[in-house]
Amino acid sequence: MNLTFREAMLTFKRAPLLSALSVTTIAFSLFVLGLFGLVVVNLQDALRSVEERVEVVAYLLPGAPVEAVAQALKDIEAFPEVQSATYVSEDDALARARAELVELRDVMQELERNPLPASIEVKLKPGFRDTDHVSAVAERLRGFGFVDDVRFGRDWVEKLDRLRGLAAAVGIVVGAAFAVVAIIIIGTTIRMAVLQRSREIAIMRLVGATDGFIRRPFLLQGAIKGLLGGGVAIGLSFGAYVLINRYLLQSAFFTQEQAAAIVAFGALIGLLGSSLSVGRHLKRV
Amino acid sequence: MIKFTNVFKAFPKGGLALKDVSFHVAKGEFAFLTGHSGAGKSTVMKLIYADERPTSGEVRVSGYNVNEMRPRDVPMLRRRLGIVFQDFRLLEDRTAEENVAFALEVTGARVSTIAARVMRVLTQVGLAAKAQAYPRELSGGEQQRVAIARALVNEPTVLLADEPTGNLDERATRGVFQLLRDINASGTAVVMATHDLDLVRQAPYRVIELQEGALVYDSAVDEASPRDQAAAP
Q1: What is the mean pLDDT of residues B147-168?
Q2: What pLDDT shows up at residue B217?
Q3: Mean pLDDT across chain A, nearest whole number?
Q4: Which of A2, A14, A208 sits opposite B106 (nearest CB)?
């Protein structure tokens, strides 16, 4: 292990330029991937805030018994899909309408009788805010005797469904394409490092080094380069994020776990890239 | 020790590098392998250190059958051999000492023993004073001595030298050749490929001559009775 570490470090010392080039290449490949990741992260945030507005409203018949409604609220909150269920009385509804519909305030003032029904507003848990689950909950709400009508904006929820599917598809396809490009570029730089040392590898074999012995320093070196490149990529992404926030729009950055995942991905690519190129090289010679 | 039996080796693009070559080098023997460039000397060497495998026939080296060796046994065989080339094949960015130590390190030798063993072989080849020098700071003869030290440090039973004096001037050639003779005198078998016939004439060693891939002369067979082969020279 000691020897592996020494040999891996020696490469950085002996070929500083090529090593720096590898790290830079890895860093920029992962940076591009990271930028795309940022777009995905922010798109998801935006979708989530839109999703939070998905809500099913059950309008109640006038004179629905208070106890029955209270019991129904408890039942509804016990549905697996439901995050919260709120009772909105006729008076609450009117108060809200007065506050929100400023243009109609005069009309509202002159009303002799409150025309607005009481309702139960149901919010769903994340993951259940799609057409199927929303419809199912709506159907169940219709089953209560004192419910007059149930609304949830079907068109809108369906659009949201499609948008979500599209975002996921683009995320996977473009993300995979970027990842493949990053892997190819990184693989090529590592291959250069291996080729640069092919004479040395040949000599190592002549004096009786096993393939494993030859391979280990390269793997370690690849992983270190990937790790460094990943770190730099996170730094660059953060810089981009700061600039975007200052000049363009408020956005979110990676969570610590996501950032760690990118660095780990860099190390993994470095490791795999080295493993492949050294393996191929050893097989060929 | 080294035994070739009816060995054929085809070039990948057709034609034969070796045609029906058979010989046997015994423990402690010194054998010259001679012939023009392209006669097959290097192919014989490569077969001995299992860089190539025979197309047909059998090559046995130090208890290993090169024909059917598993790839992971190849490094084990090479640790029993010392190999020296015309172009030295030293690692340019390591000192003489580090080049020699490297051959021990790859075998997993105990770290505490390495420095002493390295100094011992460097002393043996007469380069103890230049242990810290890099290859570019050494003359050709000195570089070849480092390569020989590297070949010796694992205490091989056979030293293979492929044109070891090919890049050296006359003085350095004599020095390196004497060193190989000393090594042989201490019990290590030496197989030396060369086309320097002056060297060959200087010493009473066995000569195996190749011509266009065929063995055309073997002093052990052609001048002595076959029974004496093992005892030659």
Answers
A1: 94
A2: 93
A3: 84
A4: A208
Q: How confident is the model at residue B232 (pLDDT cuts 50, 70, 90)?
A: very low
B150 touches chain A (CB under 8 A): yes
The architecture that CATH gives domain A55-151 is 2-Layer Sandwich (3.30)
Of A14, A209, A210, the CB nearest to B93: A14
Please indicate whether, in this complex, the C-beta atoms of A210 and B103 are within 8 angstroms of each other: no
> How many interface pairs between A and B have CB atoms less than 8 angstroms apart?
43
> Is B222 near chain A, with CB under 8 Å?
no
Nearest CB among A199, A203, A208 relative to B75 is that of: A208
- Average pLDDT in the A82-86 region? 85
Give the residue range(s) of CATH 3.30.70.3040 domains in chain A: 55-151
Find all residues with CB under 8 Å of B194, minimum gap 6, and list them.
B32, B33, B34, B163, B164, B165, B166, B200
B38/chain A closest Cα distance in angstroms: 21
Q: What is the pLDDT of residues B10-64, one digit of tens each?
A: 988 888 999 999 999 999 999 999 999 889 999 999 999 999 999 999 999 998 9
Chain A neighbors of B114, CB-CB under 8 A: none
Split at pLDDT 50, 70, 90, the class of A37 is: confident
